[in-house]
Write a sequence for this structure.
């Protein structure tokens, strides 16, 4: 079973690197959205550092959301998703490999780039560190919960927007804890509670989301 | 008595039709009793004066918004587990009413909040999670309407409803887990309620009224859904007033 899991992970990573523009689009979307706010609000450092936690987290959220449809869509159209459903290994396990591949390709670059964007927002170094930690702990939850939405809306007209409508309510707690962690460290308080709750969200979705995604895939593919 | 024969749309349709007037009547009676108690009998509040009386709509609406979501998720889950059309239709029928009660709770809360606490809206845990509940209802309705195949729509919606059910305990316990502007729990199962008996009775009457209303309206809606989805079936064609 672990062999199958690794194979799927390698396959998805290979496919993602073959179509590097997909990956780059997510990253550049994050960079552009994060850069739009200073342009719109003005370069005053105190204002920017106040809005930084929320803006950066919302940008990471939106960048994650636009890349969700590509998790299963390509496999759905060429039929390999049906083969995955017919495999003897538990579908939840195989799906977790696909979600991990998605996170490595779309979530991890956001985590790595975030400190540099945070510098644009005049965040102090302590807050930058908490920002990276919060994204590292929170973006897996975003990929996992997003996978449920992506699987439910496979092949549906207008699925890009519909996925956003479906997963955003479930993303809100992650957003609140993530932005709250950075805001807490900016005000000199400990971000421990927020980061712990973020990790709890990720762990809970790690256990439950692959099962829900597998069920959603079976529903969508019939 | 074989109750399972009513799990077919053909047999449930007339039963629902017979049930609706009873629940509508009960809803009217409870509403009249509740409004009488809340306006004529319940005393003036010490701190808030007369304006507190919006509680008699706000709290039952909020209770119903959470309750309907759980019932909707239960019906949807049952439809998913037993592959039953009618259970899924019932979930589909409950969603708009649940969304309306959620919106009512949010709006009455805003109207109450501005004069009493000085803010139309705050982003505290209870208000935010109730707003999330509204988005979940809307997402459920949007997902079902955007999938063409009705059975796939049923199952996808059921999964979404079940995933979202985790939000309801969060709303319920939010005032216990976080320091929020919203009032803490006044009524709980373990202790005597911390409010005057007449106020409690008014709230309970209106909660029952909303509940009976929900049942009546959902049965009306599920009859429409049945007619729409089963329109090619012989029993629908045979109904008087149905144009083939």
């Amino acid at each position: 079973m672990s062999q199958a899991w690794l194979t799927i992970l390698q396959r998805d990573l290979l496919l993602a690197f073959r179509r590097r523009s997909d990956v780059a689009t997510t990253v550049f979307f994050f960079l552009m959205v994060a850069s739009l706010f200073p342009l719109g609000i003005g370069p005053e450092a105190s204002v920017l550092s106040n809005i930084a936690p929320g803006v950066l987290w919302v940008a990471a959220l939106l960048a994650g959301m636009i890349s969700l449809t590509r998790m299963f869509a390509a496999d759905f159209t060429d039929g390999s998703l049906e083969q995955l459903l017919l495999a003897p290994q538990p579908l939840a396990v195989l799906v977790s490999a696909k979600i991990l591949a998605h996170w490595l390709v779309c979530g991890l670059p956001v985590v790595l780039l975030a400190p540099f964007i945070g510098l644009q927002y005049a965040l102090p170094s302590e807050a930058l560190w908490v920002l990276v930690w919060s994204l590292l702990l929170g973006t897996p939850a975003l990929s996992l919960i997003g996978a449920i939405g992506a699987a439910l809306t496979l092949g549906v007209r207008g699925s890009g927007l519909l996925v956003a409508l479906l997963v955003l309510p479930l993303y809100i707690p992650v957003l609140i804890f993530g932005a709250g962690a950075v805001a807490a460290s900016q005000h000199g308080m400990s971000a421990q509670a927020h980061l712990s709750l973020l990790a709890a969200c990720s762990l809970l979705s790690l256990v439950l989301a692959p099962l829900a995604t597998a069920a959603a895939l079976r529903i969508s593919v019939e | 008595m074989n109750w399972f024969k009513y799990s077919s749309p053909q047999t449930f349709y007339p039963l629902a039709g017979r049930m609706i007037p009873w629940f509508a009547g009960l809803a009217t009676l409870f509403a009249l009793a509740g409004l009488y108690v809340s306006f004529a009998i319940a005393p003036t509040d010490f701190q808030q004066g007369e304006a507190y009386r919006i509680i008699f709509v706000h709290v039952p609406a909020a209770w119903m918004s959470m309750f309907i979501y759980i019932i909707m998720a239960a019906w949807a889950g049952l439809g998913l587990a037993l592959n039953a059309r009618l259970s899924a239709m019932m979930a589909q029928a409950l969603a708009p009413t649940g969304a309306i009660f959620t919106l009512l709770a949010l709006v009455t809360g805003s109207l109450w909040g501005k004069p009493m606490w000085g803010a139309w809206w705050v982003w505290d845990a209870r208000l935010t999670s109730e707003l999330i509940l509204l988005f979940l209802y809307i997402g459920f309705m949007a997902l079902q309407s955007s999938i063409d195949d009705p059975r796939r729509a049923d199952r996808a919606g059921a999964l979404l409803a079940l995933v979202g059910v985790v939000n309801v305990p969060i709303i319920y316990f939010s005032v216990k887990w976080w320091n929020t502007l919203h009032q803490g729990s006044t009524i709980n199962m373990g202790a005597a309620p911390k409010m005057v008996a007449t106020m409690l009775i008014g709230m309970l009457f209106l909660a029952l009224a909303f509940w009976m209303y929900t049942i009546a309206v959902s049965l009306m809606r599920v009859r429409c859904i049945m007619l729409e989805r089963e329109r090619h079936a012989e029993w629908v064609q045979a109904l008087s007033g149905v144009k083939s």
Notes: The two ends of chain A are 24 Å apart (CA to CA). Chain A has a mean pLDDT of 91.
